[in-house]
């Protein structure tokens, strides 16, 4: 039992976080808003050179063979700067699905080509899931992983039709997609397809949970700076207890969301299919923290918090979106509720980890 | 990161479970804030001590087992799972014990720790005074040096367990010319000393869980000074304090309460559509587990030589407000039955536990530094917001 990150993992997070802070400033994000594509190609090739795209791909397939717990802190760091590009989704959700399909000997002639293209940084894959109405940055994708019923389809962009749906968050580029679910593009179906969709949902919810923790930290930092600089009645507004307590409440929620997200990362790494409880807990706790952060941080900015000029909106709007994408709090709380009511639910303090392992213990005692 | 218990940890859990199954008294003991309940709980402390289960993290020379914090968490999980009694000597074993081990002389350790571990000496705490509550540095109760003795005059209040306890520890002003956090010292005082008057204060449940203590020329030997003269504040605030904070409320306590809450919900609520209760039950279960995960994370960090981070300052707010929600939700599930005090043994075991827990939960956000003070601490020391 060791619930810590290794020094290597922490050092890597530091390195990536400091790169992100210098590259992805609020001005740089607003710069992306002014472009049609909304992504910075130079930044994306930098990400590729750092090896992020291949981090979670097994070595046998040409990747770095690292695990979800190696990436989770990086996902958090991406959230902390409110990174617009869907790097986290790509690394944690769509690429692992491609790998699963390939690993299980599923797919068609295209799959190997697509995986190779992703590893080479030449191809981008966008992913659609029934739980989300739209696909983010669909217009810069070369291939799509989309679902219909239990089926999963790998479709080239030529066979997809896109319709723009403007997001409240200018850093997101949403599209509703339609495609013809023909046999030759189907890569999984039936129980296998359903299982893959379930792991994809868990990975997607975890990806958002980690980013929501980062977003909350980002909002908190800005709010501490603002309330320290801004003076009223001859002193910093942050000296008032009413203001302090709003931000302290956020700090508490964030602090207790973090280990929940890390446990979910560990669980998804072991078995994405059996991670429903851990992931739903993570998504629910992280969404709750981030929505409270959005609300309280807007409040302590006063009228500035309600302006377009104030950079806080880059973070709050992302939090509003990510908190509900991949299942909102209600959806994830329901999954936990269902589990709590199961007759075979392993409840109690001895089951925080590895629900099930205790049965061996019962036999032994 | 490796979230699997080792074989040794599993074996330890089995051993704890086996011992507890054989020794935990059946049925709830009467409250330790009654004379009868206090003695019953003292008896339980003696039983624990005899099996060397009193404080598993303590070194073996003091009756412990030298367990690390992960093993301590496992012990606590089994302890609450077994429904074992609350610890009447928690002021001693969780608060004073670790301080004695860090700052006490070998003679002081020999004098106080074995008697604390055996349950022969139960401790009360003496921090607050009528004019020093949240502002603890305003302490005025004096302890004047007179040769090899201290002469104590003044008053303490909200002294938990003082009505039936044997000893009290607390901060006293040993330098009469000092102010604020200077000139304070930590002293250990027998409650049967001449000049000590204990006036019980009934708590919300009517039982005298705390007291006022009046000191009128009370003489204690200088031997009872813990740490240096004038170093009381530093000792009270010492880094060890974080670890004590970690151990004060172990996550298993809340996880076990949530397990009971889910059972209560299954029996009383799950067939009725009440989305608010459903959502509260889920929230409680998640929060209790989040608290456990956070504690495991901190324990792992400490076990691998790291230091405690921001989570330590946040934990008091988190568990105390969670404890309120757990018990408020139980009251909601019981509905109009919730107010009825137990009459039969069966009611005492189930309804009584919820009602007592609900009442006690009201005090969580107040004691050990109110949650308002905790929020100030987080804002100023963790987030770095301006003091004024």
As laid out across the biggest beta sheet of chain B, the strand order is 1-4-5-8
Q: Class of the domain at 195-341 in chain A in CATH?
A: Mainly Alpha
Q: Which structural class do you get from the secondary structure elements of chain B?
A: alpha+beta
Quaternary = heterodimer
Strand content of chain B: 5-15%
Main β sheet profile of chain B: 4 strands, mixed
Total strand count of chain B, please? 8
Give the biggest beta sheet of chain A: 4 strands, mixed
Can you tell me the CATH class of the largest domain in chain B? Mainly Alpha
- What is the CATH third-level topology name of the domain at 195-341 in chain A? Butyryl-CoA Dehydrogenase, subunit A, domain 3
Can you offer a commentary on this structure?
The complex is a heterodimer of chains A (365) and B (388). By secondary structure, chain A is α+β, with helices and mostly antiparallel strands. Chain A has a domain at 195-341: Up-down Bundle (Butyryl-CoA Dehydrogenase, subunit A, domain 3), CATH 1.20.140. Chain A has twelve helices and nine strands. In chain A, strands 1-3-4-7 form a four-stranded mixed sheet. A three-stranded antiparallel sheet of chain A has the order 2-6-5, with no helix packed on it. Chain A is globular and about 70 Å long. Mean pLDDT of chain A is 94; it is low at 356-365. With 388 residues, chain B is an alpha+beta fold. Chain B has three domains: 7-88, no CATH class; 123-231, Butyryl-CoA Dehydrogenase, subunit A, domain 2 (Beta Barrel); 249-382, Butyryl-CoA Dehydrogenase, subunit A, domain 3 (Up-down Bundle), CATH 1.20.140.10. The model of chain B has no long low-confidence stretch (mean pLDDT 93). Chains A and B meet through helix 7, strand 9, helix 8, helix 9 and helix 11 of A and helix 1, helix 3, helix 8, helix 9 and helix 10 of B.
